[in-house]
Structures are given as C-alpha cells and as structure tokens.
Amino acid sequence: MDTNRGAALAVLATGMLMTILDGSIVTVAMPVMQSDLGFTPSGLTWVVNAYLIAFGSLLLLAGRLGDLLGRRRLLIAGTVVFVAASVLAGLATSPAMLIAARFLQGAGSAMSSAVSLGIIVTLFPAPAERARAFGVFAFTGAAGASIGQVLGGVLTDLLSWHWIFLINLPIGVAALLAMRFVPTDQGLGARAGADVLGAFLVTAGLMTGIAAVVQPAGRVLFASAAVLLLAGFFARQATARTPLMPLRILRSRQVAGANVLQILMIGAMFSFQILVALYMQRVLHYTALQTGLAMLPAALSIAVVSLFGSARVIARFGERITLIAGLALLVLAMAWLTRLPADARFVPDLLPVMLLIAGGGLALPAITGLGMSGARADDAGLASGLFNTTQQLGMALGVAALSTVAASRTAGRLASGASEAVALTAGYRLAFTVSAVLLAVSIGVAALVLRSPAALAAAADREPAGAPA
After folding, report:
1. Closest CA to 122 of 75, 62, 56
2. Among 176, 210, 243, residue at a domain's last position
C-alpha cells in the first residue's frame, strides 16, 4: 500500500471514526445534558434519535449524489457540514438547539459516509489490499462505539459534555487539510439524472420508518406512512428513466443478503454497546468515566483483530468463513451476558465478553467485502450508500427493539416484587438472549445466502451475457 493511498485511507477512516463516535459518545453524557439543558426524559432520547434519523434516511440519496457529482466533492462537503454542526452542538444552550445540531450532524455524516466505501473500492482494486483496507475501515466502525463511550466518559467527567462535540473541530479540520490525498473523481455529472421524486420518497420513507422505531408515540401512524412512502419509492424505481436506486442492485444475491445480514448483526452489536453501558451505570453504579474505561478492552480487542488479524484470516480462509467465525464469537459473547448477576464483578463477569466481542473485528470487514463485491463498479457509490443505510437501520431497530424487550421484562419483575437491580438485570439478560438469537440467525444467512468473490466470478462465467447477478 503506497503512501498516498494509505493517507487517503487514513482520511476516510478518520471521517468514519467521527461518524461512529457521535452515535455513541453521547450515551454516557446524557444524564448531565438532561440536568444542564432541562430535557424531559422523553425529549432526551432525541439527542440520539435526531442523529440516527438524519443519518439513516439520507444515505441512499447521498450515495447517488456521490456517483453524480463526484465522491471526493461530497466527502468534503459532508465533513464541513458535520464539523459546523458539531460546533453548534457544543455551544447549545437549549434542547431545541442541541437536537437541531444533532440532525445536521447526521446529515453531514450521511454525506461523507455514503461515499467512503465506494472510494475504498476504487483505491484498492487488488483483493489482498482491499481486505487490509476494509480491516482498517471496519476497526473504526466496530471499535468506534466503544471508543466513543470511553472518550465521552473522560471528557464529561474531566471537562464538560460540551467537549464531546467540540473535539470534532480540530479532528475535522485536520481531515479537511488531508483531503488532498483523496483522488479527485469527476462523477457521472448532474445530467446523468437525479431522481428528485425518488429521493423525496425514500428519504421521507426512511425518516418516518426510523421515527416509528425510536418514537413510541404515533408509532402506528409513522409505520403506515413509511410503508406507503417506501412502496411508492420502489414503484418509482421500476419506472424512472434515471432511478435513484436501480433495482438491479437488489437482484444480486450477494448485495441483498449482505445488507439483510448486516441489519441483524449491527442491531445486536450496537445494542450490546448501549445496554452494557446502561447495566454498568444503573445496576453496578459505575460513573461515566468508569463505564467508558470498562468498555476499553472491547475497543482494544476489536482493534487488534480488525487491524492485524482480519486481512490474514480472510486471505487464508476467505470472507465467508471469516464472517461465520466472527459471528460465532459474537454469539458466545451474548450468551455469556445472559448469565450476568445483579452484583457482577468486572474480571470474571464482564472482561470475557469484552474479549469475545473481538469477533466484530472479523465479521465487519468480511461482510463489507462480501457486500461490495456483489456490486458493479459504476454502482459503487450506490452500494456504499445502501450498505451504510442498512447499518444505521440495524442500529435504530436493534436499540429500539431490545430496549423495549428489556424494559418490559424489568417492569414485570418489579411488579412481582423484585428489587430494582434484580429487575433491571433480568431485563438486560433477556435482551442479550434475543441478541444471541439474532446473531445465530445471521450465521444461517451467511452460510446459505452469501458466496465468496471467487464463487461469484465462477458463476458469472457460467451465466449468459446480460443475466442478472
């Protein structure tokens, strides 16, 4: 890997790290934000939800714009929006101001994240180099949530919650100065077509769909609107002259299977980050700083595996086997959590989980490589946007569903007379059981649906010209 391409990868990884950090860094600081800004308990959830809604719903549109206008151009624009919104969030003096800034952060993250994988695919065409690049990129995604909680705890306890946002300013400026290493691409040009109606339908559909997941009030109305809007989007894509998302991309079993699997896997993994942090604070009474530091072994284990082991394992056994092995480790991690006591000790009860979660360092680069290998070269931006969209959907769906499961079990145990610690622990244990099941289903999807790039190439050779993937 030459110096310029390595520097370009560092820029992309830095942007991804900022994006993932801001999805998790607020979790340990939310109680302080609530006290300082006067959030209601229900309003506080929108500090996370506003970011997820903007991020998840704009990714497809951003991916297509990257193909049309140039991926480097959209990467720079997204970074500028994200950094400006971070400053606004850091200076927030009211709940409305912070929520608006978080929405803008999500929009900027969507713009930069949607094109990152497409740029990596172009920069690293050789399979071995691409595997190493995906390993670096996957580290920022898998470990970023844990790093966010560590950094959030440190900054909140030692400085103030404002700095969890203001720290993005120097990082973002450094990333912008290094954009010269990212190669310039012309894009297809605006004349190639931007499906405005399709963009409106999918953006509105995803926004209302994610809102239905994260906002209990009005859930049926939001869900119904989402179904209608997304049905209209797919109907539009089948007839539009220049569709936003050509439906041919979903004819690839590889692309469709990888995105479905990612929803299941990310839903379980991101829920682990949130629920374990809540367990530490609400049951074990850890401080924000203690919680962040307790999550550090998870970040380190993922970093070691994704940066130094995943490319070698993929080269030796292939992406599909590596993915299944990583998922198996994650199943073991969730299964271990199902036995958590209400008076857990860190070393015997939690540290093994932090080490087993390193399976994410194998699974994420492997699923990324498998998903992107099923897309055509001129659909790289679209495939990248779609892949990031399902990642955000997995986060939103997983957190909402598993938090609801945990809360329901906790309420039942409280009603039967259990102590708060015992009731909370029972709720979290049930949520971790569901997570283990989701990951086990993911192994089945990987085994039955996904194929290695070599198998795809062999199948393509056997198919007549023009046959769908």
Report:
1. 75
2. 243
Instruction: Give the C-alpha separation, 91 to 220, whole Å.
Output: 36
Sort 433 into a burial class: Cβ within 10 Å, 0-12 / 13-18 / 19+: middle
Give residue 189's region: left, alpha or beta (phi > 0; psi -120 to 50).
left
| Residue 199, domain extent | 195-243
Q: What is the DSSP letter of 217?
A: T
| pLDDT tens profile 203-238 | 788 778 777 766 667 778 988 998 999 999 889 988
Residue 442 vs residues 40, 320, 405, 460: alpha-carbon distances, Å: 37, 12, 20, 25
**Structure confidence by residue, pLDDT tens digits, 346-396:** 999 999 999 999 898 889 888 887 877 766 666 666 677 677 778 777 877
CA-nearest of 134, 385, 109, 434 to 271 is: 434
Tell me: do 327 and 312 sit in the same domain. yes
Distances (CA, A) of 4 to 10, 123, 132, 311: 10, 10, 15, 20
Question: What does residue 150 show for φ and ψ, rounded to 5 degrees?
Answer: -65, -50
Non-local (6+) Cβ contacts of 144 within 8 A are 16, 17, 19, 20, 21, 23, 24
Give the whole-angstrom CA distance, residue 60 versus residue 397. Answer: 18
The number of distinct structural domains making up the chain is 2
The letter for the amino acid at 195 is D
DSSP states along 258-284 = HHHHHHHHHHHHHHHHHHHHHHHHHTS
pTM score, whole prediction = 0.73
Instruction: Encode burial over 203-239: b for 16+ CB neighbours within 10 A, e otherwise.
Output: bbbbbbbbbbbbbeeeeeebeebbeebbebbbebbee
**Is 466 inside a domain boundary?**
no
Backbone torsions φ then ψ of 278, nearest 5 degrees:
-65, -40
- The separation between CA 319 and the C-alpha centre of its own chain, rounded to angstroms, equals 20
